[in-house]
Amino acid sequence: MANTIKEAAKGITKRADDYSQWYLDIIEVAELADNSPVRGCMVIKPYGYAIWEKFQAVLDEMFKETGVANAYFPLFIPLSFFNREAEHVEGFAKECAVVTHHRLELGTDGKLKPAGELDEPLIVRPTSETIIYDTYSKWINSYRDLPLLINQWCNVVRWEMRTRPFLRTMEFLWQEGHTAHASREEAEQRTRQMADIYQKFCEEYLALPIIAGFKTESEKFAGAEYTTCIEAIMQDKKALQAGTSHMLGQNFAKPFNVMFLDSDGERKYVWQTSWGVSTRLIGALIMAHSDDIGLVLPPRIAPIPVVIVPIWASDTEKDQTLAKAQEIRRQLEDGLKIKAQIDEREERPGEKFYHWEKKGVPLRLEIGPKDLLSDSAVAVRRDNGKKEKVKFSDLPEYVEKTLADIQQSLFDRAKQFRQTNTHSVDSYEEFKKVLETEGGFIWSHWCGSAACEARIKEETKATIRCLPFDQEQEEGRCLICGQRSRQRVVFAKAY
Asked: Is the pLDDT of residue 4 over 50?
């Protein structure tokens, strides 16, 4: 990768000193991912993958509540499929990995070489619209087959030149939903519904406040009529696109002949949507909440919400503190369905404490011989470091309440950070000054011209993150050309 994880120091670089290195250090010390022998790819370690599994479990249930079912489609896509939708293929052409041979042969120099050239090259899936919609053309015959609501959890490959773990890698994990509908209205409702689900997931589980809205024409998904997105701000004041939902219209239905016989007896093209989030959200989670000590995780998405650390100096004390720890774990897991882990390692208490702080476990419960005598545990919050004594009899209620409080506290803190770093600007000179000295989200007027948008991007590296949903109209003048504008849009430098 461009900045390899292994280059990270044993300690953690301060955010204020080098934010990029701090990010890599967090991944290292929290044991989220490791380098791969393949440039631009990563090995997701068990703890990092456990976070992704939590994402999957929550989102999968949210999808299924709306009628979506899971399926799986091939990794390899015939090149000819991409040629059916010109805008789509142009948008992904530079990122495609292409398979041209189907075997290896031993050369005269004793080295293996590609052999068996394919009649048609295969594209390694960068996204699945083309192969899924070819399949839909076989699955959909009548209006009774609609709506067709399918999602798949898979990996994709995009040949990125500059990579960073989780945020931008050549191979990454994601989900991609693809739906087909009988009417434009249904498709547009689904497009917005999925953006709303992503916003709910980010805010209620990741404690990540979101601005949702429409992408500009130049920033939309290749082949879509329009794209909706959710945008978040990171601690370095850059924006991160956390998810997208696309209204595809009939742009793919026509080249892939996805048609249905309607109730009026007419053959019609379906209306389609696609939507997805990826392991990039793990990067957002790191950058939104973590500190100079290590990872910070919201309780609702943490693989281990509570860790219990027994402390002992003798075998007798070990038996006693472990017995109490196991009793507490049973109360939390059986009674409240809150996962708790007991740290039984033969390490010094301080080393154990720091281990779990680095991994971002929201709540630590310490139980030593003196705590047994006082019939209480020491509870330590990861979000603010607050310590307090809690009677054993009060622990279940305390843990449940405190985890909810940590979840809300992280959201409130992130929302306050966004508010502090959001600026309303009315002139281009002020825009450039605020962007350079303050950063963050800048709400400004824009006329809708691609030329004005491109000039701002070229001169400042800032892009329009979105045109927020349900934004009240406000008369103003475009930053660049001075033409009339009816609403502010959100600008920021972004990942």
From this structure: no
Q: What's the pLDDT at 8?
A: 38
The pLDDT assigned to 444 comes to 98
* C-alpha span between 318 and 264 (Å, rounded): 76
Going by C-beta distance under 8 Å and a sequence separation of 6 or more, which residues neighbour residue 330? none
Give yes or no for a contact between 194 and 67, defined as CB atoms under 8 angstroms apart. Answer: no
**Whether the bond into 303 is cis, omega within 30 of 0:** no
- Distance CA(361)–CA(305), nearest Å, equals 6
179 pLDDT tier (thresholds 50, 70, 90): very high
Which residues lie closer than 8 Å to 174 by C-beta, 6 or more apart?
153, 154, 155, 156, 276, 277, 278, 279
* Structural domains present in the chain: 39-289 (3.30.930.10), 306-402 (3.40.50.800), 422-492 (3.30.110.30)
Neighbours of 96 (CB within 10 A): 18
- Note the residue count of the chain: 495
Please, what is the Cα angle at 436 between 471 and 461, to 5 degrees? 70
**Which pLDDT value is given to residue 5?**
45
Which residues, 6+ apart, have CB-to-CB distance to 178 below 8 Å? Answer: 128, 129, 132, 133, 136, 150, 151, 272, 273, 274
pLDDT digits (tens, 9 = 90+) for 155-174: 999 998 889 999 999 999 99
Q: Are 255 and 85 in contact (CB under 8 A)?
A: yes
Count Cβ atoms below 10 Å from residue 411 Cβ, excluding itself. 20
* N-term to C-term CA, the chain: 16
Each residue of 187-208: pLDDT tens digit? 999 999 999 999 999 999 999 9
9 token code pair: 């120091």
58-92 pLDDT, tens digit each:
999 999 999 999 999 999 999 999 888 777 777 78
CB 79 within 8 A of CB 71: no
Both structure tokens of 417:
């950070």
Q: What is the DSSP string of 427-483?
A: SHHHHHHHHHHT-SEEEEE--S-HHHHHHHHHHH--EEEEEETTPPP--EE-TTT--
Contacts of 185 (CB under 8 A, 6+ apart): none
